[in-house]
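Running this now, will post back.
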Amino acid sequence: MGSCYIKMSDIFDQKILCKNCNKEMEKIFIVRNGFKMRALTCKKCGNKLVHPKDKQEYKKFLNLKNKVYKVKLRIVGNSYAISIPKEIVQFINRFEKEFNDLVKLTFEDARRLRLMFD
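Update: finished.
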């Protein structure tokens, strides 16, 4: 039996009219907490519509962001190491076209480190 795949187009690839003023909406990006989401906006009335898939991924992001992870500090050679929970790395990996194993680490203040995946 042959399998049949139907390539579905994204609803945001279509012309979408504003429900308030019936004008065509324009594609934009909204960034919240460093999370980039596709959206549409109406230039006339300011109505905004966030892509449903991006909205769903943002909710997953917020769930991960609000979790507190207790990880063990280990000695590896002359350095210390921590493990990054798999669910965080998998989430980041979904949005990065090219995932790099190198991360940036900065010492923000006396009790805070920042780890950046970019």
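Residues 52-65 form the longest helix (14 residues). More later if anyone needs it.
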